[in-house]
Amino acid sequence: MATTRAPRRGRPGYTRDQVLQVAVDVFNQQGYDATSVADLAGRLGLTKSALYHHFDSKEQLLELALDSALGGLEGALDEAMQHSTVAEQLSEGIRGAVQVLTARQAEVTLLLRLRGNSAIELAALQRRRTFDQRVAALVRQAQAEGLLRDDIDAGTTTRLVFGMINSIVEWYRTGGSIDPDRLADEVLTVALDGLRPR
Amino acid sequence: MATTRAPRRGRPGYTRDQVLQVAVDVFNQQGYDATSVADLAGRLGLTKSALYHHFDSKEQLLELALDSALGGLEGALDEAMQHSTVAEQLSEGIRGAVQVLTARQAEVTLLLRLRGNSAIELAALQRRRTFDQRVAALVRQAQAEGLLRDDIDAGTTTRLVFGMINSIVEWYRTGGSIDPDRLADEVLTVALDGLRPR
DNA sequence: GTCTATATTAGGATAGAC
DNA sequence: GTCTATCCTAATATAGAC
Q: What are B155-158's contacts with CB under 8 Å, separation 24+?
C-alpha cells in the first residue's frame, strides 16, 4: 500500500507510483498497445501534457512495471533456493510464485502478455526466459532425486505447472473469497497429487 | 492443410484462407493492436490496397479467426458430452481441448489473449465464458460422483486445469518432438494423478 | 503541475488506373 | 488482383502560458 509519500500541497496531483499503478491497470484492461496516453490521462482526470510531467514516455511506464514483476519472481525463487533440500526448494518456489502473482498481479499480467514488440519487451522476455530455465533445472533435479515422476519430460512438466500457476493472474481478484496462502496450497496439491481422490 | 482452392492464373495472388492464416500468425507475433494493415501487406509482399481486395477490414480477419477457435472448442466439448459416463465426458473433453489447441493453435492463441477491446472481442469473450461454464458444470458433476476430489472448489479446479491446458498454445510447436495425442495423455496424467510418483 | 494549443507521424480505409 | 496516391483520424510528444 505504501505510496512513496503523500502529495504535498496545491492541486490534488498524483505521485509517480499512483500514476504507474493506474497505468498498469489500464494496460491490462485494454492491452498496452491499444491504450493511448489520452486514455491514461482520461482515467486520471488529467490531460496528456500533465501526464508527461510525471513520465518521459508511455514505454517507461511499461518498463517500470515489468521490472517490478520480474524482480518479484526472481526474488521469490532466490529465497526458495536458500532452503537445503530440493523438495523444499520446489514447494517453496511454487508457493512463492503464487504469492508474487497475487501480490503483484497487475505487473505480472503485463509481463505474461508480452509479445517482444520493442527492445524493452525483448529484454523483459529474455529475463523471463532465464527465470524459466532456473525453474526447469530445479524440476530436473527433483526428478533425478525421485521426488517427481520422470515419465514426463522436465520441460513439459515445468511448462504445464507454470501454465497452471500463471493462469491465476487471469482470474484471481484481490479481496475476493480466495486467500493467497490457501490458493498456493491448492496449487501444490493439484500439481503434486492430482485431482483424483486417493 | 486443405486450402479452399489453388490460385487460378495471372498474378501470384492469394486465397482468402492463405491471407487469413498469415494474418493470424502476425497478430500472434506482434499482438493484434500492434499489427498494422501495412505490416500484413508487407509480410505477404502486397500493398495495403491489395489486401483490402480480400477483406473488408482488419477486424474481419480477427472475427473469422476467433470463430474458428471457438467453433473448434465447442465442437470438441459437444463430442465429449455424447459419451455416456461423466468420467468419459471429462477425459474426452480434456483430450479434445488439447487436440483443438494444437490443431488450431494460432486461432486459439488469439482467442486467449483477447481483452474485450471492441464489440467483436466482447462477443467472443462472452462465447468463451459460456464454454467455460459448461466445463465447470461437468467438473462439479464429477466431484459429486466422487470422480474428482471435492476439497478444492469446482471453479478453482476448472480454472487451474484449463490454465494448464491453455498454456500449451504458448510453447507447443507443430512438427516438433511432441505428439498431440501423447501430450493430451500427459496433461490428463498430471491433472488426475499429479507429479508425485505413486 | 496543470492547462491549451500544435507539430508530426502512423494507421485504417478508399478511389481509380492498369 | 494489384498498383499509386490520397483522405481522414488518432496517436505520441512538445511548447509555452498560468
A: B156/A178, B156/A183, B156/A186, B157/A190, B157/A195, B158/B132
The mean of the pLDDT values for chain A is 92
How far does the CA of B47 sit from the C1' of D13, in Å?
29
- State how far residue A156 is from chain B, nearest Cα, in angstroms: 9
Residues of B in contact with A171 (CB under 8 A): 159
The rounded distance, in Å, linking the Cα atoms of B172 and B151 is 32
% of chain A beyond a pLDDT of 70: 94
Q: Cβ of B196 and A196 within 8 Å?
A: no
Contact (CB<8Å) A194/B197: no
CB atoms A157 and B29 under 8 Å: no
What number is the average pLDDT over the span B113-126? 95
Separation in Å, CA B126 to CA A97, A173, B97, B109, B160:
30, 19, 18, 17, 20
pLDDT in tens, A102-140: 999 999 999 999 999 899 999 999 999 999 999 999 999
Give me the pLDDT at residue B13, please.
75
Numbered residues of chain B with Cβ closer than 8 Å to any chain A Cβ = 28-31, 33-34, 113, 115, 117, 146-149, 152, 156-157, 159-168, 170-171, 178, 183, 186-187, 189-197
Domains by residue range for chain A, with CATH = 16-55 (1.10.10.60), 59-193 (1.10.357.10)
Question: Could you give the CA distance from residue A64 to residue A80 in angstroms, rounded to a whole number?
Answer: 25
Q: What is the pLDDT of residue B158?
A: 97
Calculate what percentage of chain B has a pLDDT beyond 90.
91
Please state the pTM of the whole predicted model.
Answer: 0.93
Q: Can you list the positions of beta strands (E) in chain A?
A: none
Q: Looking at the partner chain, which of B113, B146, B187 has a beta carbon nearest the beta carbon of A197?
A: B146
Q: What is the mean pLDDT of residues B26-40?
A: 95
pLDDT tier for residue A2 given thresholds of 50, 70 and 90 = very low
Gap from B7 CA to chain A (nearest CA, Å): 33
Q: Given an 8 Å threshold on Cβ–Cβ distance, is A147 in contact with B196?
A: yes
Cβ-in-10-Å burial (0-12, 13-18, 19+) of A8 comes to exposed
Name the minimum distance, in Å, from the CA of B27 to any CA of chain A: 10
